[in-house]
Design goal:
- The chain is of the alpha+beta class and 217 residues long.
- The chain folds into two domains: 11-89, no CATH class; 100-210, Cytidine Deaminase, domain 2 (3-Layer(aba) Sandwich).
- It has helices spanning 11-18, 25-33, 42-56, 62-66, 73-89, 100-106, 147-156, 177-193, and strands at 116-123, 129-138, 161-167, 196-203, 208-210.
- Strands 2-1-3-4-5 form a five-stranded mixed beta sheet, with helices on both faces.
- A hairpin with a 5-residue loop joins strand 1 and strand 2.
Length: 217
Amino acid sequence: MYKINKITMKPREKLEKYWAKKLEWAELVATILGSWIKGVNVFKLSRKVFQVIEQKKQELVIEDLLSIKWIWKVKAMQIISVFELAKRYFIKSDIIINTSKDILDQVVEYRIKKQEYLLSITLDWANRLINKRVVTIWLLNQSLIHPREVFADAIEDRANSIVIIHNHPSETASPSFEDKMITDNLKQASEILGIKLLDHIIITKNDYFSFLEDGIL
């Protein structure tokens, strides 16, 4: 638990004089909150917000902040946005993806889904995990997915490469004709965009198929 010291100088004055590194955690929160509510001690409020942040950490959601008196939706959204910005651009993952097993470890919960999920895993130049997302949930009569739906997130992440995963509820890991078409379309798109398609993996409860390991990619 981080220690919250007594605040003796207004956070914004301290920030201007000493820069952000000199501010305590609660002072940084107070700088975000500002002094927009007359009669409310922003220092006490910032401590309450900080305690929630310290407790929830990366699991922090807007509802956690809204449970604090005087924290309204707009201010909660501002705080969440600051966290998301830092997470996207400054916090580097220590998860390295080098093998099919590394990928399978990231999608365990999707191996038993009753619907077909298409997932993407984006990686940086060192194969560090940037993000894992559900691209779409397929319906029985759904047509082939367009590459733009898959690569939109990779472009946003400024990813160096991407891995595509989808599950087969039928528990047969062998790729269908449509799976091969999707892979071919994604491979062509990856070459145009300059974002490497490392693999397309089909998962079932007890098995998997890797287009890379099978020599298709």
